[in-house]
Predict the 3D structure of the following.
Amino acid sequence: MLRIAVIGGDGIGPEVCEQGLRCLGKLAEQYQFEYDTDKLPYGGGRYLADKTVITDEEVAQLKTNYDAIYLGAVGRPDVPPGVLEQGLLLKLRFELDQYINLRPVKLYPGIATPLANRTPDDIDFVVVRENTEDLYCGVGGFLRRGTPHEVATQEMIATRMGVERCLRYAFELSRARGGRRLLTLVAKTNVLTFAHNLWMRAFEEVGADYPDVTREYHHVDACCMYMVSQPQRYDVVVTTNMFGDIITDLGAAIAGGMGIAASGNLNPDGAAPSMFEPVHGSAPDIAGQNKANPLAAILSMAMLLQQTGRMKSADALSQAGDALEAAVASVCPQFAGQPIDRLPMPTAKVTDLVLTKLDR
């Protein structure tokens, strides 16, 4: 039994999640697996009602009662910035030890890229972002706040354990993808000479255990340049939390936009559920109007099935996830020349096309 906690969240989140669940139902019939879902109320609406985002007890229940979390989107204009991002997203990543953020950067056939003369063969790599350390730990503070002499600090945290487990995941992924088996570390060792020196030393030392994987290093600024000018250079990229946050959105842009970008926040050890979500925002201006593009949410469901299946050695789930991704890829040529972030086709109709492909 696959147990999924569904956090629709805010804006278009619930409606795009619903489309992913439609696909899940179809796949469960085809691949003969059982699943159960619980829709949970966490998001801006709840916060406005009682100033609660998510309690420690509710996090504990997520950890023990579910195999995966399926998230739509969080954020609304009447909730102060940072409340939901820190109180829900970062809290779940840290408390559930989702130490890998997995972001495929893949141009599907028919989807327009802003890069001239690039095809799906040129843009097909994965970014492995460390997800529980770095500047996101919240270590810092203010001195003399609100005065002309104010000082603010934000500390970058890197631990050998956190860095090494992220690197090992990336090396294993490079092996599993086959092909070039090329892993590129992206950091800034020439300026961040303490934290990123640790990353570089660990990269070289762990790399000795993977002689079949070729290692490269790029400064983050060079990486941004290459992602635009030579995206075919990359196979698997591993990077820090902060830099990963930035370059993965650049990756989404070159692969067509946020409307087709999926992500996974993984606990690869399986000690707690992983969380899967489209990376687009809550888009409150089109919420409830059947205008949201559900493809990123559907691809996030595909990733949920693929990754949960692999972690649990459940072939039916992995195969179902692969079939769903292939179905999305097969409908993408129908959207050629259209803005993928805001398709003119109604939300449910887009899902109908994907479901039709699953029938074949």
